Amino acid sequence: xxxxxxxxxxxxxxxxxxxxTRAAHLLQPGGAAGLLLAAAIAxxxxxxxxxxxxxxxxxxxxxxxxxxxxQYIAGYNAYAREGWHWPLxxxxxxNAPDGTLTTFVDAIPLFALLLKAVAGGPDAAFxxxxxxxxxxxxxxxxxxxxxxxxxxxxxxxxxxxxMAFLLASVPAFGFRVTHTSLMSQWLLVFAFALYVxxxxxxxxxxxxxxxxxxxxxxxxVYLVVMVCLVFGADWLRHAWHDRWLAALRxxxxxxxxxxxxxxxxxxxxxxxxxxxxxGFGYYSMNxxxxxxxxxxxxxxxxxxxxxxxxxxxxxxxxxxxxxxxLLAWRLARDPRFVLRHLPLLLVLLLxxxxxxxxxxxxxxxxxxxxDVEEWMLPVTSQLRAxxxxxxxxxxxxxxFTVIALHRRAPGAWRPAVMGxxxxxxxxxxxxxxxxxRIKSAQASPAPIDYAAWDRALGADVKALxxxxxxxxxxxxPHKTLLPLMYYASERKxxxxxxxxxxxxxxxxxxAQDIAARAASTExxxxxxxxxFAQADFPDLAAVxxxxxxxxxxxxxxxxAWVCKPKEDKP
Length: 570
Fold this sequence. Notes:
Radius of gyration: 27 Å
Oligomer: single chain
Number of helices: 23
Structural class: alpha/beta
Number of strands: 9
Strand order of the largest sheet: 6-5-7-9-8
Distance between the termini: 111 Å
């Protein structure tokens, strides 16, 4: 009897040598081979959809000086080529002398910190690391697909391939290429992986959340809020089963760790207040956005305002067809499904409602509007691009669809079913692919003449004092301040302002400011130049009067008057 049981066991893992068991596991979908495959699928998809040189950071897209990527590149290089300061994210050459933080120039602070530690320093070359970041985001998107499949117990190569492709090709993911930090959507994928892991284990994965929340905070403010929403749902569904002390610890720990790190990275903050930004209700999602944008359902009139591009959230035909059918099947088979995931479903409903904002449109038809209450303004003014919050729903729909499809499709038919879903989604997303290709192929001529600025400033100038400061001028900052900030960063010059958050310099009393800056140079006034946007200062004589008794020589360069103190001659 014992010998029969032994032979019936066949290749039972318990009877194999440990090294063979480990090797076999590594070659399974849930092992290292599966991880490499999922990451490779996502990276190959990126290499296919973007133009040559894009992922290397050398494509014309990255050489623009009047877009959001200008802020990223200028901010990173100013930070990486300075010495170390305290707090660690501090940049002294931008918004001088007060300085700023990498957080406020959207330089993806954690990424910038790691790069500075490895390749920064005064002699570091000026370069663009954000092509690398885009490539890394795709790799991590694939890794998140593998992690979800592993935690959900989906031991199927075809399922892994479908999950990796669908998550790499989420239309709202590639659409964000012009705002690179928002491409860090792997954070949201990892949040759902932790959610699935907690479900499998029957207890909150508190260590994973304790790491993920701070990482998300130091990457992008919108994504950390979305990650915290999924964390809150995961915590709630376990809290009433845990002892209250353990539940309280699990809730507080991620934010306690984050708070402790702030004293090394960001605190103390400058005295400037956080201004309330306009845009909530404008940068929203149209109700048609998840449904329109593919080959079968063209984009049509799925935006009512120009700002609703922020709510671009097409799901893709395979997800649109399969998700409701599979949800109905799941509810019929498991009536308690909704109750088990009720906190997450409430979070998804809240995210959907916030994405619609205070003005909900179906196409160009306004369905309803409501007034934003005063108590909501601190949130709605900082998270004004509300259309982005549908991402939580998009990723939940994609992940649920693949998991449910795996469990519904018979084993023998599973590869065929997964293949059909992949082919349908890939065909339908043709217009979405075109949008990404158009965005990533953008190029524009340099808005400033480098040689002219070099001649006007000379080798002695080390600082630019710019008037009017950010938020005070009439000219579009993308045509004036952004390229000047880029130029200053490349030439290792300090600049008195910059395109950044939390800057509230006075929009008046420029004569006093000039006098204070001239006095602070302690006799080295020739090392600073003063730049005045002609859109705000059309009269050169009025500009010269701002200097009082300080004699200056001024010239015209591009959009500005450039004035330098005259050197005293013996």
